[in-house]
Specification:
Layout lengths: L1 H34 L5 H20 L10 H25 L4 H8 L1 H9 L4 H21 L7 H31 L7 H15 L1 H4 L10 H25 L5 H9 L1 H13 L5 H24 L2
Helix pairs in contact: 1-10, 1-12, 2-3, 2-8, 2-10, 3-7, 3-8, 4-7, 4-12, 4-13, 5-6, 5-7, 5-13, 6-13, 11-13
Length: about 300
């Protein structure tokens, strides 16, 4: 009886943690938008990577005696880090130009297409059609493309989706190689720590001349640290807690709530109120995410 109650509590905790993860991730993104007044979006994204890498490296110490890295492990983690960093930077370039809710929805088209193109059934074809309708509703009708930067924001969000798709493909390969590796090989968090460090090093030249405002005051520096903790460290830690606890159907439904979560956070923190076409687009893309959630769960890193 006690064991059954513990299992039930664990099962109930996983969805709550998943939803909390979504809110913290987009609260961090909203905080990043505020920092865009002090630094370019690319620099804020770089600080997020650098701080998260420092925290994860200090936490995991992935190059200690307990972990054995092969050249393949290092190569996969480095490639993973490149696409992770690229995805984050493109997304920040998008939310610097268009509201966060539409940007998140447009970015989700990447993993939807990866999952849908891997299948052949009606579910996958329907997901592609709904994602396309969502993009049309948001980018073609919901956002005013005559406003400065809006077209660029749409393109950056879609490009972030492509980077996310490649991130998933590399993540799947990384997960497969981990399964075949020796027991003392790097864990997922170990690889993630190295990946973030590599991503930060790759994009360091882009941020080198504009990073100093983050060090101008304790308030700004703490905001930068908050972005990294809320948007990277905390969500990935929750992923580890939730690993294996959510069923495929629960994962799909909860993932489909993330675009709506970003709208709620954007409305509260940034006063970004979506119009009817943006809401229609969010609805279409959320349904597409739910339809392909099972396959994406099996391919996520």
């Amino acid at each position: 009886m006690k064991r059954a109650r513990a299992a039930g509590a664990s099962g109930a905790l996983a969805p709550a943690l998943f939803i909390a993860q979504g809110f913290t991730q987009y609260i961090g993104a909203s905080l990043a938008v505020v920092l865009f007044a002090l630094m370019p979006a690319t620099t804020v994204a770089w600080w997020r990577l650098a701080v998260a890498a420092a925290v994860l490296l200090a936490w995991r110490r992935p190059f200690g005696a307990r972990v054995r890295w092969s050249r393949r492990d290092i190569g996969h983690a480095a490639l993973f880090g490149f696409f992770l960093a690229t995805m984050n930077i493109l997304f920040y370039l998008a939310i610097a130009r268009i509201p966060m809710g539409p940007a998140v929805a447009l970015e989700f088209t990447g993993p939807v297409l990866v999952a849908a193109l891997a299948g052949r059934g009606w579910r996958d074809r329907t997901a592609i059609a709904l994602a396309a309708l969502g993009v049309l509703a948001i980018g073609g009708l919901g956002l005013d493309r005559s406003e400065p930067g809006v077209i660029g924001g749409i393109l950056f969000a879609l490009a972030a989706g492509v980077a996310w798709a490649l991130y998933i493909v590399i993540g799947r390969s990384l997960a497969t190689s981990r399964q075949a590796a020796a027991p003392n090989g790097p864990t997922g968090i170990d690889s993630l720590a190295l990946a973030m460090a590599v991503g930060a090093l790759i994009y360091l030249p882009m941020a080198a001349t504009t990073m100093s405002p983050a060090l101008g005051s304790w308030r700004t520096f703490l905001a930068v640290v908050g972005v990294a903790i809320l948007s990277s460290v905390f969500p990935y830690a929750i992923d580890q807690v939730n690993f294996g606890r959510l069923s495929a159907s629960a994962f799909a439904i909860l993932t489909a709530l993330l675009p709506a979560t970003s709208v709620i956070v954007g409305a509260i923190m940034l006063s970004q109120i979506p119009n009817v076409f943006e809401l229609i687009g969010l609805f279409f893309i959320s349904i597409a995410v739910a339809l392909t959630g099972k396959r994406r769960e099996n391919s996520a890193s």
